[in-house]
Design a protein that fits this description.
Length: 366
């Protein structure tokens, strides 16, 4: 079965390409006051919009949502906790930086969230970040040292975690010891209600050699971004390195999408957003960035983190998603999130994964 994740918004949402014009969730420019409107405060608070996105994700049948790390957006741990409380089946991945706190503290928070959610919490550990963001948080670790710290972080977090239940024992740990360059633990280890829980599935990202090496040792899932150089070489290297550790790592591909009933409808949406960002037309035609099949390399100009994504009819996008080799699933995103989630759930996911998401497909595999 193909896994589908959806990356949640972190700075509000809306239909516009320019983030400052999107006012859903309390972000963006203030709405103009008018005497023709009810001046009483609205019934929806700033988090209610995001709650609707999370609800739409579960209703649409995606397997998991991701609360992304965003220094200027909502705090991912708070979003993840709210998503776990609101959902019943969907898994929730929280993205956080390894400088967030000690690995023991992150593990303890996660143990409580695993108890709350029935073991549905996952981690996406962010290693690289903008240097200005790192300095603003008091983090001066740079370069390869970031990967060395992430290695220690994951080692310690797993070390203090006990999958089997351990009876309470006062204030003592379970004897876990670690002495590293970034962390030191003496008599660590969880007991009582913090033990006997599944450790969060660990997602890691990046196409660099350091990222692949870290993921081969610690990752359960690795998320690749589609680039001009492709992901296949890094995916093969990851598989080889993981095998050296006696492990296997699942692979996801992160892609923004714009899918509609017809290809023309999808491109009409792109062109409306393109004209908003380039009203003078001097930046050329949006179709000049079209690649083979349904790929388009202009998503970063519309406010997305990635450059390359998919545009086309539901059949076009499904065909391209199905064509990616050595991929176990996808991290999709699109704006506005509520509407795009419902489109994906109703028209797209079952085309990509008929064996897992249609009755006929499931019966054929029984």
């Amino acid at each position: 079965m193909t896994d589908f994740y959806w990356e949640l918004p972190s700075r509000g949402d809306g239909r516009r390409a320019a983030s400052e014009l999107n006012t859903r969730g309390g972000f963006g420019a203030d709405r103009p006051a008018t005497v023709a409107t009810d001046l009483r405060p609205g019934k929806l608070g700033p988090f209610d919009e995001l709650a609707q996105v999370i609800h739409a994700a579960e209703l649409s049948g995606v397997d998991a949502v991701i609360a992304p790390y965003d220094p200027s957006g909502e705090e991912s741990w708070v979003v993840a906790a709210a998503a776990l409380r609101q959902t019943r089946h969907a898994r929730v991945a929280v993205e956080f930086h390894s400088a967030f706190g000690t690995p023991v503290y992150a593990a303890k928070m996660s143990a409580t969230l695993q108890r709350l959610s029935g073991g549905r919490l996952e981690w996406r550990l962010k290693v690289e970040t903008d240097p200005a963001d790192a300095r603003a948080r008091g983090d001066w670790v740079t370069g390869r040292d970031r990967y060395a710290r992430a290695d220690e972080f994951l080692t310690v977090a797993r070390g203090v975690w006990n999958d089997s239940e351990v009876l309470p024992g006062g204030f003592g740990g379970t004897g876990y010891e670690f002495a590293g360059n970034h962390y030191d633990v003496i008599d660590g280890g969880f007991r009582g209600i913090l033990s006997g829980l599944p450790f969060p599935v660990v997602h890691l990202t990046g196409n660099s050699d350091e990222a692949v090496t870290l993921s081969a040792k610690h990752g359960d899932v690795h998320q690749f971004v589609l680039t001009d150089a492709g992901y296949e070489s890094s995916a093969r290297t990851l598989a080889d390195h993981a095998l050296e550790h006696g492990r296997s790592v699942r692979k996801l591909l992160r892609l923004p999408i714009i899918a509609r009933e017809t290809t023309d409808e999808a491109w009409a949406r792109v062109e409306r957003l393109w004209r908003e960002v380039h009203p003078d037309g001097v930046s050329g035609d949006s179709r000049a960035l079209a690649r083979e099949n349904a790929r388009w390399s202009g998503f970063d100009r519309l406010g997305y983190d990635q450059s390359i994504g998919l545009i086309g009819s539901y059949e076009d996008v499904a065909r391209e998603l199905s064509s990616f080799r050595h991929i176990d699933g996808f991290v999709l995103t699109g704006r506005p999130h509520i509407e795009e989630l419902h489109r994906a759930g109703e028209h797209l996911l079952h085309l990509v994964d008929p064996a897992g998401r249609t009755l006929a497909g499931q019966e054929a595999h029984t």
